[in-house]
């Protein structure tokens, strides 16, 4: 189970992992907490959908998310509490944080209870969400973390056996900085040291590295599906064009709950989020029996 804040977050952060497990036959559930109503619009013809105009961007992004899920092979997608139950809060400190339906202001136990219902239905063995800072500090990402972790706590014996937080090793960030140093579309701006970014984890804190390079094209197609949010000039397309499947298809995670399985390489990273779990207990093949 993947718990994300807005449409497109699932693709950017975990798209290759989702496609990897969906292709392997695992039951992959995506829970998105808002419709992303406050997102930017990079398609000029759709500018009228903006929150300060028709306020229809959220509805449009449902279709984009559907297309992205098809590209990734994910067939089980839900909005937390139903589409539109919680609204995109916008960036931290904006007046949109105070909207009556803003996810940032949602009652924690109420929202976690809605996620708990899905956990009880799906019975995921593994849950993936953000770290306590929401990876980069967006209020909805932080709230998604809080809701997911509270739901796991409330689930008791039905809780996922392992919970992972999305992560990027500092060495990967440093390599990206070097690659984009001379680029006009440098996503790192004026930052030259990976330690100065509000995200990035020491290699020793990373528990798993999922190699989804075979599904990099699926992730790229899902990125393209989120056209209102990710313009053709985005650094994501630059990564795909210049650095190949490894840059898009390899995703890293920190283990927050559960026992780390066997790993390999310099840091002993797992290559499977189900490492150490009995995925064949349902009597099917390991991949088909797993639920994420």
TrEMBL record:
<dbReference type="GO" id="GO:0008270">
    <property type="term" value="F:zinc ion binding"/>
</dbReference>
<keyword id="KW-0479">Metal-binding</keyword>
<dbReference type="InterPro" id="IPR003737">
    <property type="entry name" value="GlcNAc_PI_deacetylase-related"/>
</dbReference>
<feature type="binding site">
    <location>
        <position position="6"/>
    </location>
    <ligand>
        <name>Zn(2+)</name>
    </ligand>
</feature>
<feature type="binding site">
    <location>
        <position position="9"/>
    </location>
    <ligand>
        <name>Zn(2+)</name>
    </ligand>
</feature>
<dbReference type="InterPro" id="IPR017810">
    <property type="entry name" value="Mycothiol_biosynthesis_MshB"/>
</dbReference>
<dbReference type="GO" id="GO:0010125">
    <property type="term" value="P:mycothiol biosynthetic process"/>
</dbReference>
<feature type="binding site">
    <location>
        <position position="141"/>
    </location>
    <ligand>
        <name>Zn(2+)</name>
    </ligand>
</feature>
<comment type="function">
    <text>Catalyzes the deacetylation of 1D-myo-inositol 2-acetamido-2-deoxy-alpha-D-glucopyranoside (GlcNAc-Ins) in the mycothiol biosynthesis pathway.</text>
</comment>
<protein>
    <recommendedName>
        <fullName>1D-myo-inositol 2-acetamido-2-deoxy-alpha-D-glucopyranoside deacetylase</fullName>
        <ecNumber>3.5.1.103</ecNumber>
    </recommendedName>
</protein>
<keyword id="KW-0862">Zinc</keyword>
<keyword id="KW-0378">Hydrolase</keyword>
<dbReference type="GO" id="GO:0035595">
    <property type="term" value="F:N-acetylglucosaminylinositol deacetylase activity"/>
</dbReference>
<dbReference type="Pfam" id="PF02585">
    <property type="entry name" value="PIG-L"/>
</dbReference>
<comment type="similarity">
    <text>Belongs to the MshB deacetylase family.</text>
</comment>
<dbReference type="InterPro" id="IPR024078">
    <property type="entry name" value="LmbE-like_dom_sf"/>
</dbReference>
């Amino acid at each position: 189970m993947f718990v994300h804040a807005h449409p497109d977050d699932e693709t950017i952060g975990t798209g290759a992992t989702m496609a990897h497990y969906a292709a392997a036959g695992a039951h992959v559930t995506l829970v998105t907490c808002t419709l992303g109503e406050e997102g930017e619009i990079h398609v000029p013809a759709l500018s009228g959908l903006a929150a300060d105009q028709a306020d229809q961007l959220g509805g449009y992004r449902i279709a984009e998310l559907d297309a992205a899920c098809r590209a990734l092979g994910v067939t089980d997608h839900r909005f937390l509490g139903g589409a539109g139950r919680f609204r995109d809060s916008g960036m931290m400190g904006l007046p949109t944080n105070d909207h009556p339906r803003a996810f940032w202001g949602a009652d924690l136990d109420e929202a976690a209870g809605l996620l708990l219902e899905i956990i009880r239905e799906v019975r995921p063995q593994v849950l993936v969400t953000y770290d306590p800072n929401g990876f980069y500090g967006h209020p909805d990402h932080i709230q998604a973390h809080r809701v997911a972790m509270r739901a796991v706590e409330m689930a008791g014996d039905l809780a996922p056996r392992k919970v992972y937080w999305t992560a990027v090793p500092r060495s990967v960030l440093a390599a990206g900085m070097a690659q984009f140093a001379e680029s006009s579309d440098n996503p790192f701006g004026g930052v030259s040291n990976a330690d100065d970014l509000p995200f990035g984890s020491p290699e020793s804190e990373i528990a798993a590295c999922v190699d989804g390079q075979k599904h990099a094209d699926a992730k790229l197609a899902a990125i393209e599906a989120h056209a209102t949010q990710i313009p053709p000039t985005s650094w994501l397309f630059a990564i795909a064009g210049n650095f190949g499947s490894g840059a898009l298809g390899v995703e890293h995670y920190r283990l927050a709950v559960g026992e780390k399985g066997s790993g390999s390489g310099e840091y002993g990273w797992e290559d499977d989020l189900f490492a150490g779990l009995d995925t064949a207990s349902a009597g099917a093949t390991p991949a088909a029996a797993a639920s994420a």
